[in-house]
Specification:
217 residues; mainly alpha; 0% strand; elongated; single chain; Four Helix Bundle (Hemerythrin (Met), subunit A)
Length: 217
């Protein structure tokens, strides 16, 4: 091949495409994630304000509703999520040191802890449904209005939080796949780093939900 042939557009196109595919901007990724997390804070912050207002108006009924929740299950889920935050942080640290195997193992532990949280929450919800304690049920409608509001907020806020845990678990699985494929590595860590930020936010929200719903009684 002549020197001129090596510089033809047809020859350069694959290289240009490869360079475009390898574009990586960790700063933009981090800014985008922080903006997204800010919207999540606004969403849950609004719900926390609504809770505070109704708690002031119906403190006795909220306390009565709180006493019907299982504090041991709530505390167990709190410990599970706190532990998952630790394993997530260790997974990121392992990836920064190019220890792919350890990072995947720690992400797997984080995923299992997240699934354990969801399992306990599903068991808790199932128990409440068995006792006819859910919005618009006959038993619920017979309760004082304040308790109806309490359970309405309980299902709304813990359900929304559980949905975020499910999304977080999906992101963890994606991170593990990308590590296996070599798309996430020590010099390209933005995805797992942002996954960790999201997971820590989910954990922080639960740390606020636990005392609000389980301990005010």
């Amino acid at each position: 091949m002549s020197p001129h042939a090596a510089l033809t557009p047809d020859t350069l196109a694959p290289h240009a495409s490869a360079a475009h595919a390898e574009h990586y901007d960790p700063v933009a990724c981090k800014i985008g994630m922080w903006l997204f997390l800010f919207t999540e804070v606004l969403l849950f912050g609004t719900l926390f304000i609504v809770f505070a207002v109704y708690l002031t108006l119906h403190h006795f009924d909220f306390a009565s509703g709180s006493r019907q929740l299982d504090k041991l299950l709530g505390a167990a889920n709190t410990m599970i999520l706190l532990t998952s935050s630790l394993t997530m942080a260790l997974a990121i640290a392992a990836m920064q040191r190019s220890n792919r195997r350890l990072s995947v193992a720690l992400l797997t532990a984080t995923l299992l802890l997240g699934l354990a949280f969801l399992g306990i929450k599903a068991h808790e919800w199932h128990h409440k449904f068995e006792h006819d304690l859910y919005p618009r049920s006959a038993t619920m409608l017979a309760n004082p209005y304040g308790q109806q509001v309490f359970y309405g907020l309980y299902y709304t806020m813990t359900g929304l939080h559980a949905l975020h845990v499910i999304v977080g678990c999906g992101a963890i699985v994606s991170a593990m796949v990308l590590i296996r494929l070599g798309r996430v590595r020590a010099d390209r860590i933005a995805f797992i780093d942002n996954t960790g930020l999201y997971w820590h936010l989910v954990d922080a929200i639960w740390i606020l939900l636990f005392p609000l719903f389980y301990l005010i009684g």
